[in-house]
Amino acid sequence: MTTAQDSTAITSVLDELTAAWGRHDAQAYGDLFTQDATYVTFTGSLYQGRQEITDSHRALFMSFLKGTKLADEVIDIRFQGPDAAVVSGRGDTYKGRRPRKLSKIQTYTFVRESDGDGNGEGHGRWRIAAFHNTKRKPLMEFVSRRFAPGGTTADAK
Questions:
Q1: pLDDT for 17 beyond 50
Q2: How far apart are CA 47 and CA 64, in angstroms?
Q3: For the domain that residue 84 is a member of, what is the CATH number?
């Protein structure tokens, strides 16, 4: 059974992710993902596995993302059993002041990895097994709401 403690543990991982980004520590960033994680950027690039995620961010932190910080905001955490959760959120990279509106929508799939103690569920560290990042398009969100009023968008909250 999932608990408030599990939600706190997951948001702590996201806090660690943001802190690692802020330090441009690609190793610490990558360590928060499972060995076989998938990572899809807003440009459509796909990275597969912890090592590829780490290596790509090491290169990005020295070039395009140099000097940036990461903003992350959780919208919802939905548990899919005791050892899996889907997290919806908003995010953005920035330099200087944190943006008021975050320009990307993100989906994380978290899994609780066994810590090898043999005690079953409820033990182990939460890690990111999949990440998908999508650039928001406010005009298209508006149009979508007009034609499908039952739907929600990230901006609706």
A1: yes
A2: 17
A3: 3.10.450.50
